[in-house]
Amino acid sequence: MANRRPTLETVAARAGVSRATVSRMINDQPVAPPSRRAVERAIAEVGYVPNQAARSLVTQRTGLIALVLPESSTRVFSDDQFFPRLIQGVSQELETADEQLVLMLAGSAASRDRIERSAVAGRVDGVMLASLHGTDPLAVALAKSGIPVVSNERVLGPVEVPSVGVDNRGGARAAVQQLIVSGRRRIATITGPSDMIAGMDRLDGYLDAIGDAQEPVVAAGDFTRTSGEVAMERLLSEEPGIDAVFAASDLMAEGALHVLRQSGSRVPGDMALVGFDDITRARYTEPPLTTVRQPIDGLGRHLASQLLHLISDGAVEPQLTLPTELVVRDSS
């Protein structure tokens, strides 16, 4: 006959205490030190594993924290830099807190509805949102439902959601100012998505830096390598006078660099180039890429930390902004 799974009664009998004492300890309630030590020994000896479903009924906690990315699986898993590092930072923070990460992709209306139902039903203790676009309906719905929610950027729309972001505007401004100081007279930018806070703020930083001294030259991108290639081809065709480009992501800068190399343009001789993010490959391009370093791992850790504070006591900063750093390499 198969061995029966150890129960609270099994542990109580081995420890010489009541079932109620074992239950209190399992659910993190006060227990006298001698009884606690006896129960801990008994748990180890009999191999007892708490029933999470039953425990959740008592604590009203599942031990599950969701990271929701409103992107397609193709976008998330083709980006081998930002999303993996963000997830790593979140996972490290949650592991320290003995919480389990649940990754959810909301790249379609159906998946957003499914995630909303799951979260509102209490299947997770809280939600972290990252890579939001526009007035995201999921962000609005979750915030209105009362479930603890934290976003990695400011949420656009009629809700207030605590956020953890980076100084996108200041970082972009510093990048473009470096190009100006180095003598570049006609600086273009390849933007991020116009419906994302990071895209908007990095464009604003570019505009801050050039001020009235230069006419803005703007080509649209979406943070991907392909969009950087397309935008750079357009700039070379339509704006022959430019001598520098600020790309709002390193992936776009990498695409732009590929086009420049194919066109015979020397970097930085003919065209200076600066990116944003400081992904690992930025230091290995030819030439190595000047970029704005954002603390992607730290962003993930702070995102998780803020949500855990929100779940436990509701006290968090409404808007936490992490600093960026200009890293000057040979491309500028």
TrEMBL record:
Keywords: DNA-binding, Transcription, Transcription regulation
PROSITE patterns recorded: HTH_LACI_2
Domain HTH lacI-type: 6-59
Pfam entry (one): Peripla_BP_3
Domain of life where this protein originates: Bacteria
GO molecular-function term, one example from the UniProt record: DNA binding
Classification via InterPro entries: HTH_LacI, LacI/GalR-like_sensor, Lambda_DNA-bd_dom_sf, Peripla_BP_I
Coiled coil: none
PANTHER family to which the protein is assigned, alphabetical: HTH-TYPE TRANSCRIPTIONAL REGULATOR GALS, LACI-RELATED TRANSCRIPTIONAL REPRESSOR
Protein's name in the database: LacI family DNA-binding transcriptional regulator
Organism expressing this protein natively: Saccharopolyspora mangrovi
